[in-house]
């Protein structure tokens, strides 16, 4: 497996980023500039973030696979690193039984008209697609705003699976560090 992803943060197990407990990966870098984005720290793609190989991320997911339902890729903008996302998604499906959700600022037509973006979502079970719009803010579910669309690509997830996803989650690290995530959270809750 080749390739690497520029990463903002990884949480091995989160409940606020999709059904069940999920390894959640925030990629670093987004040029879409949605007004009101509540995750601006993820926008720069130069001199920020950690570069992780696809193999490292797959090994991390495999290490958690007995404790998690799946993986969520968010950001930042996952589809601005489409080759590595495609490689990660294909490896995840080949090596584990985990589900995959991708949160992206690109709309479904923008994805379907671009071969690299379409390849990146080929192995996703659910894509949440579209720009964040502040005037349509939701702060719940997996859509930051009501214009964003759920693109159900397999039968693995349904609307009902999202009803129990909390809007906010506070995680306490081994060193006492607090991480707040979820659609109602400032910081690493956005995509
Ligand atoms: S909401 Fe998502 S797509 Fe929009 S600027 Fe923020 S990180 Fe980028």
What do we call the CATH homologous superfamily? Aldolase class I
Instruction: Enumerate how many helices there are, as a single number.
Output: 5
What is the mean predicted local confidence, pLDDT? 92
Low-confidence stretches: none
Order of SSEs, N→C? EEEHEHEHHEEEEHEE
Shape: globular
Under the CATH scheme, the architecture is: Alpha-Beta Barrel
From the helix content, strand content and strand pairing, which structural class follows? alpha/beta
Distance between the termini: 26 Å
Descriptors for this entry?
single chain; TIM Barrel; seven-stranded mixed β-sheet; two-stranded antiparallel ribbon; 29% strand; globular; binds iron/sulfur cluster
Can you walk me through this structure?
- The chain is α/β, with parallel strands linked by helices.
- It has one domain (4-181): Aldolase class I (TIM Barrel, Alpha-Beta Barrel).
- 21% of the residues lie in helices and 29% in strands.
- It is built from five helices and eleven strands.
- It has helices at 54-64, 82-95, 108-112, 115-120, 159-162; strands at residues 4-14, 22-27, 50-53, 70-74, 99-104, 126-129, 137-140, 143-145, 149-152, 169-172, 178-181.
- α2 (82-95) links the parallel β4 (70-74) and β5 (99-104).
- The two termini are 26 Å apart.
- Residues 30, 32-34, 37, 39, 42, 75-77, 105, 131-132, 190-191 line the site of iron/sulfur cluster.
């Amino acid at each position: 497996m080749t390739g690497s992803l520029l990463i903002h943060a990884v949480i091995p197990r989160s409940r606020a980023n999709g059904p069940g407990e999920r390894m959640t990966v925030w990629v670093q870098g987004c040029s879409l500039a949605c007004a009101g984005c509540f995750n601006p720290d993820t926008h720069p793609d130069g001199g920020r973030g950690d570069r992780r190989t696809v193999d490292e991320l797959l090994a991390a997911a495999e290490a958690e696979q007995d404790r998690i339902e799946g993986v969520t890729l968010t950001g930042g903008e996952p589809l601005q690193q489409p080759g590595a996302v495609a490689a990660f998604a294909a490896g995840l499906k080949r090596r584990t039984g985990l589900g995959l959700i991708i949160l992206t600022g690109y709309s479904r037509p923008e994805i379907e008209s671009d071969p690299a973006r379409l390849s990146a979502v080929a192995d996703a079970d659910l894509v949440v697609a579209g720009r964040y719009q502040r005037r349509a803010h939701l702060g719940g579910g997996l859509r930051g705003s009501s214009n964003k669309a759920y693109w159900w690509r397999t039968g693995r997830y349904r609307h009902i699976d999202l009803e129990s996803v909390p809007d906010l989650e506070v995680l306490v690290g081994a060193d006492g560090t607090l991480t707040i995530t979820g659609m109602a959270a400032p910081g690493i809750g956005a995509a």
